[in-house]
Specification:
The structure is a homodimer of 412-residue chains.
Chain A: E1 3-8, H1 16-31, E2 35-40, H2 46-57, H3 65-72, H4 74-89, E3 94-97, H5 99-102, E4 104-106, E5 115-118, H6 121-128, E6 132-136, E7 139-141, E8 147-149, H7 154-165, E9 170-175, E10 196-198, H8 199-207, H9 215-224, E11 228-232, E12 240-243, E13 256-272, H10 277-287, E14 292-299, E15 304-312, H11 316-329, E16 334-347, H12 357-367, E17 374-378, E18 381-387, H13 391-401
Parallel strand pairs in A: 1-2, 1-9, 2-6, 3-6, 9-11, 10-12
Antiparallel strand pairs in A: 4-5, 7-8, 11-12, 13-15, 13-16, 14-15, 16-18, 17-18
Chain lengths: 412, 412
């Protein structure tokens, strides 16, 4: 008998008949003897609908953010009421809670608040009384009782926060996919649903464009040691367990391949190789609120160098315009760019104990004549930038070469 | 400089552009030097949309009512956020409040709770700071902080309650009509918007099917002596002031003519005239939750009597089935009925001091050969039941005869 926090996202509660299915899942878990606390998102596209109303008003000054939270938080409130009603109709005692009613205390940063504290009194009383608490995700209150929201994808974070304070055995994130895959199954046929993965790996995958789970929720889970299970609302498979590294188990060298096409590359050529030159180039870019991802600089023989970095594809033109001015100021030779690139990353905690993964990756790509334009590495990740048109080929080839289709595929 | 509570109903806030117009009205009142507290309903048909979701779940047991309130209260919450944002955009400081945030304390009767107490701390602080508080109508919280709603049309009551506790100079109910009319202008061409009317008269009109204002709001206003003004959100006229009788002013004999087609009549013929017979007839009808309106019983010469009463037209068939059984049990001769009737009422505080209004009414109807089937009177009202097909004729004839088209028309 375990204590489970079950979170159901927007597609899982998109209609009353979807909510019926969700209720049946909750009741099945209860029937197995588990205690369940439920967290839900707004129904289907409801948050977007509410957002559209705010866009119609079109006033986003600081003082309006308080009201945007009042507006957006209604989406989850509708779901908690309906799901509680359906549970009761099916004979399962249930009770809805807004963020304020639980008292999920956050800071004052409307529309992107951080959870400071979660009161457990109501939740514990309900669990004791065999009532399923149904909690609105994504929302909280500040100290003055004003409604706050914690940013898009925040319901995942709410679920993990509840699981942390309740010391739940598992935080189950129900979604519209079967779990976390070795890579995007729409691109690579052999993509396989992972049985387990570490927090660290999941963080790298999440931040690299694998949209299953919100990064903040994973960080939170890692910090408070809450095992997360990602699984499908519609299927019956066990999904993917995200947890700490298990010291008794040998870790696969590579757990997954993530990629994103949402990138563009800019290069300033013929930059004088003097101290402070990097900040003179990147300063104006940051000032324009453009996020820079990978940065590469090589020192050349003739005291001049080429400086390359990537930005989100949407920001490409603006970054280019800024760089052209900067190039003049710093007397650089010229600026070139490419917005037809993609970033592909191998992620795996096993890399730590296995040298040569990068070399092997480069050799595999070279064999397919795929040119690597940029490289960046972390302890458990190797990212490369390549021409976008080779992305599918690269993903498929690497997926096969590192035997990711095979259960516990391991090159050791 | 006055303190005004301004309430805007669903049709007045049906879209963001409607809300823009509402905001302009509020700002105009501020510009005249008034302090304003705003109460709003859900946008347009939003309450019906939420209600449809509840109907889809189709579970109305007592324990589900708590959740229906959680669901329905989101409608007003959306409006307060949007209106506050629009006000701020137009340069007017504003702040939204849910029922719980003001702390409108109600009893526990979910979906039809009664307001027990309204805290004024936040409202007074805002007024002091020149901020317009925008309050969600229709909702409150019970002592445990659970969301309650106070029944359909409840936003009017919320507005009056706020006006009462704040001792506001006027509670302005903005709606989609110009004010309170002498009778339905769709039926009687000469119908005129009244400049003022008493609480008592308004109560009779409201309960008789004049849908401008909710009865409970009028009762509340009468109890706490809050002057109400009903006026159009879209026009510029002064509307109708609902207040106490002004002893310095002569009251018109008749203020208005109300009518409803939503009635049916049932008669049990040949009932033995013995004690307790009325309750033996009406008991089973009430037990079926059918509301009885007018009741007439005449004692006949031969120790038997005819017993007639009216019910809502929707309940006609069910009431008829019940009566047929009852008639057998009490050995009555037969049961007859008519669901093509209408009720028409003259209302006016001036009746008190003017005898002969009823006689005059009956004479006018007789002159048009309109047969009166039932009569019921109160101190300030005379109601008659007539054949539905004569309703328009009766309304027009009486409206003219009592000179209601004329400003301060008075037969004295």
């Amino acid at each position: 008998m375990a204590l489970l926090v079950q979170k159901f996202g927007g597609t899982s509660v998109a209609s009353v008949s979807h909510i019926q299915k969700v209720a049946e899942r909750i009741i099945a878990a209860k029937a197995e003897g588990h205690d369940v606390v439920v967290v839900v998102s707004a129904m289907g596209e409801q948050t977007d609908t509410l957002d559209a109303l705010a866009r119609e008003v079109d006033f986003y000054e600081r003082e309006a953010r308080r009201e945007i939270d009042v507006l957006l938080s209604t989406g989850e409130q509708v779901t908690i009421a309906l799901l509680s009603m359906v549970l009761m109709k099916l004979g399962c005692a249930a009770k809805s809670y807004t963020g304020g009613q639980i008292r999920i205390l956050t800071d004052d940063a409307h529309t992107r608040a951080r959870i400071l504290e979660v009161e457990t009194q109501n939740l514990r009383a309900d669990i004791e009384a065999n009532i399923v608490p149904v909690v609105a995700g994504f929302q909280g209150v500040n100290e003055r009782g004003e409604i706050t929201t914690i940013g898009r994808g925040g319901s995942d974070t709410t679920a993990v926060a509840l699981a942390a304070v309740l010391k739940a055995d598992e935080c189950q994130i129900f979604t519209d996919v079967e779990g976390v895959f070795t890579t995007d199954p729409r691109i690579v046929e052999g993509a396989r649903c992972l049985e387990r993965i570490t927090f660290e790996e999941m963080l790298e995958l999440a931040s690299l464009g694998s949209r299953v789970l919100h990064s903040r929720a994973v960080e939170f889970a890692s910090k408070y040691q809450v095992p997360i299970r990602v699984l499908s609302s519609f299927g019956q498979s066990a999904g993917t367990l995200i947890t700490n590294e298990d010291p008794k188990m040998e870790q696969p060298v590579i757990s997954g391949i993530a990629f994103t096409r949402d990138e563009a590359k800019l290069t300033v050529l013929g930059v004088k190789d003097i101290p402070g030159i990097a900040s003179r180039i990147l300063g104006p870019v940051s000032d324009a609120n453009i996020e820079v991802d990978m940065i590469v600089q090589n020192v050349a023989a003739d005291k001049s160098t080429d400086f390359t970095f990537t930005v989100r594809r949407d920001d490409y033109q603006e970054a280019m315009d800024i760089l052209k001015k900067v190039a003049k100021d710093i007397d650089a030779r010229e600026v070139s760019g490419d917005n037809k690139i993609a970033k592909l990353s191998l992620v795996g905690v096993g890399m730590r104990s296995h040298a040569g993964v990068a070399t092997r990756m480069f050799r595999i790509l070279a064999k397919e004549s795929i040119n690597i334009q940029m490289i960046s590495t972390s302890e458990i990740k190797i990212s490369v930038v390549i021409d976008e048109k080779y992305l599918e080929l690269a993903a498929r080839t690497l997926h096969t070469a590192f035997e990711l289709s095979v259960e516990n595929g391991n090159l050791a």
